[in-house]
């Protein structure tokens, strides 16, 4: 982990200070877990819940709260399984592509 990664994680912890411990854990899990090219965590809720020692229903309920708070966004759906990523705006990423004049 680089110094920049550590700083980003500390900033993320600071930004989530008003959330419950479980909500913060879900946010950090999605921020630190390996992702695909779009930033989506391609893991089921059951596996993620097991990873952090949470009951699956508690994890799903907490993730729903985090989604409603605007921290996670759905990226894709395969069958009935939804995949999520941290909202890039929450990480301070510039998500607007500037327009340029056609020549």
From TrEMBL:
Domain of life: Bacteria
Protein name: Replication initiation protein, RepL2
Protein source organism: Streptomyces rishiriensis
């Amino acid at each position: 982990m680089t110094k920049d990664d550590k700083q980003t994680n500390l900033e993320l912890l600071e930004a989530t200070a008003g959330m419950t411990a479980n909500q913060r854990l879900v946010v950090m899990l999605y921020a630190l877990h390996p992702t695909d090219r779009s930033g989506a965590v391609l893991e089921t809720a059951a596996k993620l819940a097991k990873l952090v020692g949470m009951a699956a229903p508690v994890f799903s309920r907490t993730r729903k709260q985090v989604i409603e708070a605007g921290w996670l966004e759905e990226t894709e759906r395969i069958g009935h399984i939804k995949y999520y990523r941290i909202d890039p705006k929450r990480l301070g990423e510039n998500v607007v592509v500037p327009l340029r004049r056609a020549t």
